[in-house]
Amino acid sequence: MRLLWFALLLVLNFVILSNGDGNKASSRPDVVNxxxxxxxxxxxGRVAKIAIEAAIEDVNSNSTVxxxxxxxxxxxxxxxSGFIGIAKALQFMETDSVAIIGPQSSxxxxxxxxxxxxxxxxxxxxxxxxxxxxxxxxxFFVRVTQSDxxxxxxxxxxxxxxxxxxxxxxxxxxxxxxxxxxxxGDQLAQKRCRISYKVGIPPVTGVSRSEMLDxxxxxxxxxxxxxxxHVNTDLGxxxxxxxxxxxxxxxxxxxxxxxxxxxxxxxSWPLPSATMDTMQGVLVLRQHIPDSxxxxxxxxxxxxxxxxxxxxxxxxxxxxxxxxLIAHAINRFFIDGGNISFxxxxxxxxxxxxxxxxxxxxxxxxxxxxxxxxxxxxxxGLTGPVQFNPDQSLVNPAYDVINIIGTGFRRIGYxxxxxxxxxxxPEILYGKPATRFSADxxxxxxxxxxxxxxxxxxxxxxxxxxxxRIGVPRRVSFREFVTQVSKTDVVKGLCIDVFTAAVNxxxxxxxxxxxxxxxxxxxxxxxxxxGLITTDVFDGVVGDIAIVTNRTQIVDFTQPFIESGLYVxxxxxxxxxxxxxxxxxxxxxxxxxxxxxxLFVGVVVWxxxxxxxxxxxxxxxxxxxTIVWFSFSTLFFAHRQNTLSTLGRLVVIIxxxxxxxxNSSYTASLTSILTVQHLSSPxxxxxxxxxxxxxxxxxxxxxxxxxxSKELGISRSRLVPLGSPDEFASALERGPKNxxxxxLVDERPYVDLFLSSHCKFRIVGEEFTKSGxxxxxxxxxxxxxxxxxxxxxxxxxxxxxxxxxxxxxxxSCTSDSTELESDRLHFKSFWGLYLSCGVAILLxxxxxxxxxxxxxxxxxxxxxxxxxxxxxxxSSLSRSFxxxxxxxxxxxxxxxxxxxxxxxxxxxxxxxxxxESGGNPERREIEIL
Length: 929
What we know:
single chain; alpha/beta; Rossmann fold; D-Maltodextrin-Binding Protein, domain 2; eight-stranded mixed sheet; 32 helices; 46% helix; disordered N terminus; disordered C terminus
């Protein structure tokens, strides 16, 4: 009986467990409903409809995909209308659709994604490329195509690759167009490029041809010639046709079309020859589909499906893969225990929807599970790997870059987010290290609009009746550089001649008009003049404009046409030689150190020679005289004492070398002092000005005041503004004690012109800034680049030098055979020589002392030990020191003789001790007898 009950329990338990497993692997329905939302009669829609139907057929005929469950799809036509698209999408929400393919339009996607989030129905789009459709805001929106964020990154890389800087954006003014162009602006900014002009076209069919022509005329009036076209198919083809009629598809223009045009080329090929003629030389982006056997097979099948009347574009292949992605996700959904069930939203039940029947809309209970299944799917489709990044974007975004030529088009390269532009397919590059260096970017040659192979400049100076407004300073001093002729509109000067010569070298015509700036009473502020470019008062500034940091931050400068830099000008006086001119080559410090080294060398040589050289011995008075005489006689290499020790000779050789160098330098400096008339100034350069508290002059309007006060920290109270060369001279002559200045700081061209007629002053010190003069233009203006090229050409041809000689006269002070006093010979110029000599002498002295100590300890007997008291120890040290001094004073010859005697006495004593200790007995008896 117990066995029977036990068997029943096992069977019951088995049934319960079986039911539990069955709940996990949920029962599959016979049919699963999905929807599709797109425009049937559109370039993308016509291809997508056939591709989706083919995919549904393939999925349902393959029992291994859904395990016997069939997909039932309902397609809704949005008819290119956002309103109809929204209404059709809401109808899907009233049915039990677990997912919706589409929408095709980014505008509809923004609205429907909100509803999809609430009802938890995944929205899987194969064509909505708006980059702002993010997974953060719309978690149930899944994009099975590439975002325009990557397409605009490709456009930015192309613009940067060809060296263009300004782009004109022509776009359809809806979410798709505006957000795509916003992404382009961000990508261009990373390349230091920009969108210089935007043309938004209303997304309605009622835009007349005349209105379109007006918009394109405005585009033609802009300097940039690089045009990006980001519109829909019908609008884009109309724009090309009208642009051709306006001459905008010819030489000099660059047209870049986004992938709307490649969709037309792929699905409607071949296009009429008249249509192809309107877009010759256009660059087009196309979503890259890796080549595969499956892709080729589907192309063959596609011809049968369409009868050859419709080509297959990338969006059609993405639509086909979208169906397979949903099928695999639904299969995973069932495996993970998902059930298709819907529940009503209580908020809609009580909303009073009237005839809208909002209460019929229901929430998909398994929506989150199906969404996760979609995002975690990984399959190989027609378009390659279908996988998602964490941000719900497809992996490996890539585009083909194609060029329309004649009756066809040619692929000139690829772009992928991994390595940028390349002529190698992206799928090959994924297996190599990523390189995004400029030198690694590559595309094949392009046939540009106008049937040219030379890369277009990308911009032109527009000849629209307007003149470039060129600001010039109305100077009242140094009028040789730039000035307005009195009572006329004529402007002339060195800077003006350089500008007009550069204009003549430009490869295009530039119309300009000079506009003087300033009141004519004083030189204007050049910072204010340059700043007017940023406020659109001037299109450029020409004149003696220094290229300095704070100006380069707001405008672009050309290549400098004159080198400049700040110099110090000060009064100078002539130096007379006088009776003590022979002391001037050395500074007092140098004289003292030189004399000290003479005595130091003499003392060292005496120490090294004293014990063995009789010429360095004698009474103390004679020895002192010998030291002094030997030291200073080496100055003329006339020392009569011979050196006998090796160390002494080494010290003398080193010292004589030092004397030779010092003597030669002294002779050269004294010769210059006595033969050339020198000028002297208490100011030695900018450093001495910074250390003093005396007033400094500067030219009104220049950047000198800002540099001295801000960069060098000189108080503004010390800075005196001066307006003309006469004011310069007057202030310098008066000096700081009479209300003048101690020195003038100004740029080199002004200084040269000032000194050419004022010979009482000279440049003191070295140049302490490096800069130049250039022409200023707005930031990123291509004129700055072209003018720089022209200025370099003028420099190479020698034209700049000729213009310089025309306006700037040679100095009238060159006849004076005078020069500014150079620095005297300082110790800092010879400290290395002195250091080397001093180290060698001290080393020789140290070796000598060590030798003496060793000799003293080896050859002099030790004194008998005295009492161990401290007094006794001190007395013993004193006696030892006295004995050492006596030993040092002793002649080497006497020391050697005494050492020999000591050695002889020691040997006799040892012999006697040997006899006494039992030597030969016979010898001992003889000694006794």
